[in-house]
Amino acid sequence: MTCHKLLVGAFFAVGTYSAFAAGPAPVLDINSNPDSLSQRLATLERKLDARNRAQLDIQRQLDDLQTEVNELRGVTELHTHQLSQVLERQRELYQELDRRVSEALKPQNTVPTTIQSSDVHTTAEVNYSSNLSENESYDRAVNLVLKDKRYEQAITEFKLFNQKYPNSTYAPNAHYWLGQLLFNKGELTLAENEFKVVVDNFKDSSKRSDSILKLATIAQKQGNKFKAIALYKKVIAEYPDTSTAKLATTRLESLQ
């Protein structure tokens, strides 16, 4: 019995010693270098602060860029609005000139053929100068219609202008007005050729829709009903919500 107690006590002593020998090791390992742990924490805090500052700088830059984009968008919208107003005003001026030409070309204002022929031979060849600038040549032809009502000479002037300045910004208008003058004289085939030039070669011209309408009118006068209908429908399809389309609609209804 005594031996048994001694053995138990020996085992207990050995276990107790082992526990004291092994136990303190992790405590010493954790607290062995508190300064190093503090340095690591301080380094992490500095990195976090630097990252936060960088994010704030990026956010400020994004805000500045967004402000600039908004300002540029506002300027663009303003310029777009101003441009649309200029284009609309130009369209109104073209329509007014077209109206004045149409009024000037009414039958009661037409100069007799005999007088027209004499005008062509006496003035057109003498007064036309090849030294005239593009603007002067165009203004001269227009004034012959609107102011002087010398339509035969105007035909000659517009032909000369189109030959000399085929790529002029006035070219679609010049061909259109020449077509109108020829149309008024009853030279439908020659007028048709001029209107076709506008339709085929000047896709962006404000005179293109009117030229298609004129081609439809010529086809109708020539008795080509199906061609006239197709051209009236072309005007309505390509230029909806315009005065030209409304006029085409009215004429189309009269044919159907």
Query: So what's the oligomer here?
Result: single chain
CATH topology of the largest domain: Serine Threonine Protein Phosphatase 5, Tetratricopeptide repeat
- The gross shape turns out to be elongated
CATH class of the largest domain: Mainly Alpha
Structural class: mainly alpha
Portion in beta strands: under 5%
The radius of gyration computed from the alpha-carbon positions, rounded to a whole number of angstroms, is 46 Å
How does this structure look, described?
With 256 residues, this protein is an all-alpha fold. The chain folds into 2 domains: 50-92; 93-255, Serine Threonine Protein Phosphatase 5, Tetratricopeptide repeat (Alpha Horseshoe). Helix content is 82%, strand content 0%. The chain is built from 11 helices and no strands. The protein has helices at 2-22, 24-30, 34-104, 113-127, 134-146, 151-164, 171-185, 188-201, 208-221, 225-238, 243-255. Helix 7 (171-185) packs antiparallel against helix 8 (188-201). The longest helix has 71 residues, at 34-104.
Q: How are the SSEs placed, and which strands pair?
A:
Elements: H1 2-22, H2 24-30, H3 34-104, H4 113-127, H5 134-146, H6 151-164, H7 171-185, H8 188-201, H9 208-221, H10 225-238, H11 243-255
